[in-house]
Amino acid sequence: MSEQDGKTSIADNGTFWLATFAIAGGLLYVLAPILTPFVAAALLAYVGDPLVDLLERIHLPRTLSVVTVFLITFLVLALLVLLVLPLLRAQVDALIGQLPDYAVWVEQNVLPRVSDLTGAAGSEDVGLSAFLANYGSIAGDWGTRVMASVSRSGSSLLAGILTLFLVPVLTFYLLRDWDRLVATVGLMIPRRRRLVVFRLARDSDLVLGGFLRGQVLVMLGLATIYSGGLALLGLDFAIAIGVVAGLVSFVPYLGFIVGIGLAGLAAMVEGGGITLLAGVVAVFAVGQMIEGTVLTPRLVGSRIGLHPVVVIFAVLAGGQLFGFFGILLALPVAAVLSVLARFAFSHYFPDEHADLSERG
């Protein structure tokens, strides 16, 4: 057997690839704390590559195209910071300043009803003052420990700052050489497997690209709808609440729950009564309806969207296994695994797959 035949047989061996994936998974688990900037840069490069390719098609050099994309991104971010951040910061500061008033309102209006329902009416152990009296020293000790820990973690702060500066540098180099890297990975695939692997890669690219780009647009759309609707109601902190609800909406229903909770509490504290509270509910109900009927079908697409249960499980599992790195990578991995699962189902159960396709 020739040397070339030996290489081919090893590359086509299923055990070899299983061992390779197992080793790669172990390395990812061990190196997870330092992989966050690389994963973030890879995702940014993946999202930005179509725009760079578009500029290349109008005869701009690759490096100049990457620099142009970086400049456009920087200008957009700078514009957002200059226009939105001051207003958002002012609202967040005001919201934090109102937290003691919210606590007093809860103590005066909510806790008495809870006490009546639980039979603890008149108890001296119920209320904000009782909580501070009983647990204030514990909270103080805990705060002292936290501050001491923060003061000792200068290296972690330095690592965070380094990561922040690493991401754009890594993104630039990955984006510049993206097509070359993809072609190199393609050459590593055994010839007998390339047709199937390339098909799976195209399907994964369709799902992953559509999901990531569409989900970002859905988040921005929901943030705009929530902020605008709450502002029309005259609710304080409308923009801050709307932006927070929109940004966390990548987890199904989390943005709705967080947003309606914050906005409902603000409406009750402001004394708007049932009318303002009904308006808040209406804003978030309309936002959910627009997301389900317009934003998600048009921007993400029902064919390439992930089931809400899959999304929630992926985010929780990624965070449990790899921390923030896992959360960052959870949805892309889930999108690719969904493609592999559909392919495996259609390959090993062709009759059932055909029956489901006819029903769909």
Structure write-up:
- By secondary structure, the chain is mostly helical.
- The protein folds into three domains: 35-121 and 171-188, no CATH class; 199-304, no CATH class; 306-360, no CATH class.
- The protein is 86% helix and 0% strand.
- It is globular and about 70 Å long.
- The two termini are 50 Å apart.
- Mean pLDDT is 74; it is low at 1-9.
Helix content: over 70%
H/E element sequence: HHHHHHHHHHHHHH
Rg value: 26 Å
Helices and strands: which structural class?
Answer: mainly alpha
Question: How many β-strand runs?
Answer: 0
Question: How much beta, percentage-wise?
Answer: under 5%
Specify the number of helices. Answer: 14
Which term fits the overall shape?
Answer: globular
- What is the total domain count? 3
The overall average pLDDT, rounded, is 74
Identify low-pLDDT runs: 1-9
Q: Please give the alpha-carbon distance between the first and last residues.
A: 50 Å
How is the biggest beta sheet arranged? none
